User: What shape does this take?
Amino acid sequence: MNCKNCDGDSFVQATDYINLRPLDKKTGFGSEKVYTVCMDCGEVMSIKIMNPEKLK
Assistant: This one.
């Protein structure tokens, strides 16, 4: 996989520790997001929700 922005091939996975939760559930815990980030230019290549079942 290469970066769409700079054609780099070095990536890291990171999180911001702010869980994604449904808008109608203010008190739900939700699920952690994992970002795949290009180490050359900082472009976010993907965002994955670790436990999508927690959004139901």
User: Anything to note?
Assistant: The longest strand covers residues 33-38. The beta strands are 11-14, 33-38, 44-49. The chain has a mean pLDDT of 92.
